[in-house]
From TrEMBL:
Membrane keyword on record: yes
Record-annotated membrane-spanning stretches: 20-39, 66-88, 109-130, 163-184, 189-206, 235-258
Protein's recorded name: ABC transporter permease
Signal sequence region: none
Keyword Transmembrane helix: yes
Keyword annotations: Membrane, Transmembrane, Transmembrane helix
Length: 264
């Protein structure tokens, strides 16, 4: 598809490589450092701050411990993905490129699908980068903290594959949210501010006020999806809600992109 190739070409920039993949790698190192430092101190894991879900000692020593960092920082990875989906979408409007694209391809839905396809490929690359760095950082971090890694080789390939798939799926939903926010605001700054503000502030306030309502919020749902389910929300439930968020977001995005005047 010409639209897909065009988007991939425009996204193949140094800033995207260093920014998107670099931030994913940095957060992968940071989260491993934090979770194993906490474990080394012998203290109970915190209840989880905004954007972070800390694993227990049992989780770190289980076969899934080697990929615990990936699921722990799911919301942070999600915000990074949201940001770059928003930047890629809003930049078409800020540069005026959208007018040229719409003139060359009157079927706007094809333009949007091409962009989504290209961003899905980049999200897969970013998720892979985060997981590779996580694997490299997990073992020395665990050894420094005195965490047993005896079970890490049990079903290693399966754990890595599951962690990649769940993290990628959660990131895609975050990306779709970023795309919709960018289409609504036509500003990457506004879209990113709303996304970060939601994760760090609004969702935390809602969960504090009502833990039951908090189970259905995007951050909680997508963290549960990345972790393969939690005590409060099963994996199947997280997948279902995540699919609903993604479907609704895609529908809203398509309607806005097709029907809203380009020059508005």
């Amino acid at each position: 598809m010409r639209e897909l190739r065009s988007e991939l070409t425009r996204l193949n920039r140094r800033g995207i490589w260093l920014g998107w993949l670099g931030l994913m790698a940095v957060f992968a190192v940071l989260i491993n450092t934090v979770i194993y430092t906490i474990a080394a101190n012998g203290s109970a894991p915190p209840g989880g701050g905004p954007g972070v879900a800390f694993p227990t000692m049992a989780t770190l020593e289980s076969s899934s411990g080697i990929v615990a960092g990936v699921s722990s920082a799911a919301s942070m990875f999600g915000v990074i993905t949201l940001s770059f989906w928003a930047i890629a979408t809003a930049s078409d409007y800020s540069t005026g490129l959208i007018r040229l694209l719409a003139a060359a391809q009157p079927h706007r839905w094809r333009l949007l699908l091409g962009k989504i396809g290209a961003l899905l490929i980049w999200t897969a690359l970013a998720t892979t980068a985060a997981e590779v760095v996580n694997l490299a950082a997990a073992l020395p971090s665990a050894e420094a903290a005195g965490i047993s890694t005896a079970l890490w080789m049990d079903d290693l390939v399966g754990e890595i594959a599951r962690a990649w798939l769940t993290s990628f799926s959660a990131s895609v939903v975050w990306g779709i949210i970023g795309l919709v926010l960018a289409l609504l605001s036509r500003s990457s700054a506004i879209a990113i501010s709303v996304g970060v503000g939601w994760v760090l502030l609004i969702e935390t306030i809602i969960k504090t006020a009502s833990s039951e309502a908090g189970q259905w919020l995007p951050g909680t749902t997508l963290t549960a999806l990345a972790q393969g389910g939690t005590d409060d929300l099963s994996f199947a439930g997280a997948v279902l809600i995540g699919c609903i968020y993604a479907a609704v977001g895609l529908i809203i995005g398509l309607v806005i992109f097709i029907r809203r005047p380009i020059t508005e």
